[in-house]
Amino acid sequence: MALFSVNNVKIKGISATVPEEVYSNKSYEWISKKERDMLIKMTGVNERHVAKFGMTTADLCESATEKLIEELNWAKEDIDVLIFVSQSRDYLIPATACILQNKLGLSNNCLAFDVNMGCSGYVYGLSIISGMMSSGQIKKGLLLVGDISTLNTSYNDKSTYPLFGDAGTCTALEYSNEAKMSFNLQTDGAGYEAIIIRDGGCRNYASKESFDKVKHAEGIERNRVQLELQGVDVFNFSLKEVKPNVSRILDEHGVQIDEVDYFVFHQANKLINESIRKKLRIPPEKVPYSLDRYGNTSLASIPLTIVSELKEKVSKGENKLLISGFGVGLSWGSTLIDLEDLVCPDIIEIKLN
Amino acid sequence: MCIFNIVKIEDLIEKLEEEFDDVEQGVLNPEFNIKDIEGWGSMHVLVVIALIDSEYDVLLSGSDLTNTETISDLFEVVQKKMIK
To answer: What percent of chain A has pLDDT over 70?
Structure first.
């Protein structure tokens, strides 16, 4: 069972950058007004920030990282690890982390690599980077997570298009004697088709047919290089798996719900998240949402929500957070983290140069 | 533990009426086909799954609902899954 703790690594700062352009779901005319109103109510997504073609996740993460390094007053040569977790890399080859190492002006002694994970990616990324830093030989590290999901959604697919927003984030971690993070990570690859882009990888090379738009149901038309999401399957998975995963990590560490200051869940959609919150009997004031203004920002949604909703609270004093990511893979996991005087700049908005 | 909550189909009907803004109270009955709710679609399916899960602690699958027509059918599926 992947239930474990990592000692001696502390989160020092979190920053987030989104594209300046905002799309309102009120103007999503592919569906009727009635259906649109129900969709906004059910998903909780009013508007989202959307990248124009040409802007990448790496651009968003680069902006967030520069700001955070500046506010932390870190020397770039002290950063020895950079991990980029995303499903929207700059090129098929090489790894985007390598490009970012250079763009950010980090040392050639900094290790850098990509990890391909979605909604659970922030939690997984924290486990990887903290594991690498725990022995104390690497003192400072950067975890960059984000996605531009809107590029791969079809305007004519009501099951994906109105849900997603774009964001890139940076989390700065430092070796620290008293720190501890605990994880509970899980996987069920039997559900790999629940959220999938079918063509363009090695299993199904992109071909001319990959770009043919196909109608799958009323209001759901897309091609095979666009995101496919089986709503009911994802919904059932989330209702079934998230609660026991969270309960298990709390039990393992003897932490009661009222001892946790905030529960930050992946911002999937309002109906899923509220169902999970109620099942766990967590009071609403402990569960922040950024969904209404940013949509589902894939694996960036947890750090983005911390910055957008909890900035004032986590910037001063100590806070215990339970964060939980779940989705594509299927992959899910929770982490217990302690934040102290977190460096947390305001959300940055950028436009295409 | 929730078995006593759903001794009556009327409770389920009341909860469904509360959940859907467009459905006026008193319109639904055991023989009503839930797919005849105006604009019935994939979002309604998710709302019903969430409702049944939170009220009765029963997780319906997509096919449970595909195979269900009347509220009475739905009630039966929920009861069967509660006993399991």
So the answer is: 100
